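Hello forum,

I keep getting stuck at the same step: I have a sequence, I want structure tokens, and every attempt I make locally crashes halfway through. Rather than fight my setup again tonight, could one of you with a working pipeline run this one for me? It's a single chain of 591 residues.
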Amino acid sequence: MDTKVKNKSTFKGMYDDYRRLLKYLRPYRGEFLFASLTMVIVSSTSGGAAFLIQPLMDNVFIKKDARMLTILPGILVAIYILRGAGRYFSSITMQRIGMQTVRDLKNEMYGHTQGLSLRFFQQHTTGRLISRIFSDTNLVQESISVVIYDTFREGLTVVTLVGVLIYRDPTLSVFALLVLPFSALFIGRLGSKIKKITFGAQERAADLISLMSEAFSGVRVVKAFGMEAYETEKFKGENERIFNITVKTVKINELSSPLLEFIGALAIAAIIYYGGWQVVEGRTTMGSFFSFLTALFMLFPPISKLARVWTKIQQAMAAATRIFEVLDQKPDVADQKDTVNIGPVVREVAFEDVVFAYGNEPVLRGINFTSKAGTITAIVGMSGAGKTTMVDLIPRFYDPLKGRVLFDGVDIRTVTLESLRAQIGIVTQDVFLFNDTIWNNIAYGRSNVKKEEVEAAAKAAYAHNFIMGFPDGYQTIIGERGARLSGGQKQRISIARALLKNPAVLILDEATSALDTESEIEVQKALNNLIENRTSFVIAHRLSTILHAQVILVMEKGKIVEVGTHNALMVLDGAYKKVFDLQFAANSKIG
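Reply #2:
Ran it on my machine without issues. Output:
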């Protein structure tokens, strides 16, 4: 996603973005129509109040008409009762529309990001994505509930009051309205600056969220290295930058009202002089002039609000640009046309001349191998050899640049992602558990699962006993990323989750984290149960795994350089033996 401000400063560019935002209002057209009617009432009452000044001055105060004295106050009270009711209903209706629209927008953004490919999340920080879904949409909410409300209501009010001005004195009206083009030009310049600054502020806010997310997630590392003060200062620095940008925004935003008022004051002074001269000369009545003057004074608050609306629109457009950058992203990996469902692998999984790169950096070079169904394929190699990338192609986290991955001779790009991933279980080295119950973590991805099934999976993963040791058993909340569990317990919950899915194909990146002897034994027994009778691809770190593997693939710089069993490869005295001697001799594990 391009983080630079797009060229949306033109009216057309802004209109296109705003029109796109307004599409989210369509489900609420009925409510919007009701709000519009109430806003028409509010606007009409402003003109009505100004219009009443003329009969009030001329008939009551000058002609001493007692009948009008009894009628006009009642009409004025009725106008303001109607005005108050209209303001109330229009305001709550527009705010409700804004909240509903932004709720829908957040749902769409989150759902859209869930459908994006893994590469997208590797290129964008969590904080930036969270900021776009929450902070940016909140700015958009204001543009809908406040901006549309103020634009419509205050715009109608301006039209009504201008009508009163023209009716009372067309000549004075022309003079009074001459200041509007200059005001509009000034407001437009301020709005462009506001948009640019707002975009920068939102980017900084996203960086701050990313910083906090990293610090909280890595709190053990922070404390282990005594970096609490460093992280605090880093936060203060980012926070200070956001503060300075916000202050700058406020200064520019608040500049509009006093300058507009100054321009208005000059116009009013000239109008009072000219209008007063007309009254003295008998060319107009005092009531008519004061009615004109009242309408003019009443015109300034809505114009001032409309000036602020323009800056808010610019803020909203900066947020909309960031939102649409996410919504316009297309997944790298998606179902093609005419894809079909695929059943469980019964014969083999094969790689044919597979080539893959991250950008311009080659990772896999001409990978060819076939794994028979039900066999264990161990993958070994030094760090950076391409082991994880290769197995990531099996569930289509990525697609190869060249070549094919085949399930029973079928290119997996021609089958639906849902049916493909339904038969693949993945247990990663970095175990991820949700801040939820143990039950929900094991049953993740399964609906209407039976108690017996969950417990059977937990028992097979050697997790049932320690789970029942908790006061709440399977309903125990385990904390963020399983913070309340030990390393071995988290691994066994992850294995139970894979067992419950009962996949035909298993991808296992064995954990290299140091466990105590008892946990190591329990985890190994759980892994043995998981691997049994499955087509398994194991990035191996344990000697027992490679000894039980029917095939070992030895990777080096993105290529498979050796294939065979442990004994056969040791006899070759080649790349495998080198990896074995270096890593197994160092830590009693293989990798």
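The chain has a mean pLDDT of 82. If your local run keeps crashing, start a new thread with the error log.
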